[in-house]
Amino acid sequence: xxxxxxxxxxxxDERVFIHAMPGHYISSSSHLNxxxxxxxxxxxxxxxxxxxxxxxxxxxxxxxxxxxxLCLYETQALGAYLAHELSRPNMLxxxxxxxxxxxxxxxxxxxxxxxxxxxxxxxxGKNVLILISCVTSGKTxxxxxxxxxxxxxxxxxxxxAFSATDEIDGVKIxxxxxxxxxxxxxxxxxxxxxxxxxxxxxxxIANGYGYSLL
Length: 214
Fold this sequence. Notes:
This protein is α/β, with parallel strands linked by helices. Helix content is about 25%, strand content about 35%. The protein contains 5 helices and 14 strands. It has helices at about 40-45, 45-60, 75-85, 140-150, 195; strands at about 5-10, 15-25, 30-35, 70, 100-105, 105, 115, 125-135, 155-165, 165-170, 170-180, 185-190, 205, 210-214. Strands 1, 2, 3, 12, 13 and 14 form a 6-stranded mixed sheet that branches. Helix 2 crosses helix 3.
């Protein structure tokens, strides 16, 4: 696959960036005309630290309490930096004095999100912030929100590096990048994909971990 790769910088902090590659991609629930790469935000220390600061601003300015950051798709390092920013003293909360937990989910054979008995206490009765790299259809986030509620937690918010939607089930998505940052970005249902209808080959399978060429 020989596709151009574009670097898109955040207008709030140009040190934070994503990569975007046009083509024909399929995810678990959608067909996409762009692949959005967030590897640097997840795995590059300097970019992760700056991204976490941007993500934390919304919750600090709106005085939204967070007890636990639930990290999806290899975002634990980013989640740790985010927890650090949320727990730092600031003008709205000069003496926070609270511990913020960071954890990733486990999945059973059916793909359901589960938390072992020793970790349930990090969800039950806690204000849980769901962290994810990319949101397209929002179905992964919906499942995470349901799991948090099943385990007795409260969804304090959802934050993402990139999101193609503004909200899910009435919860605002706090994202650094949106589809407006990627000209012409579209997500299609598998039956309505214009690339498929035109007989165009699928370039890769994509998910929150990355992409695999076909």
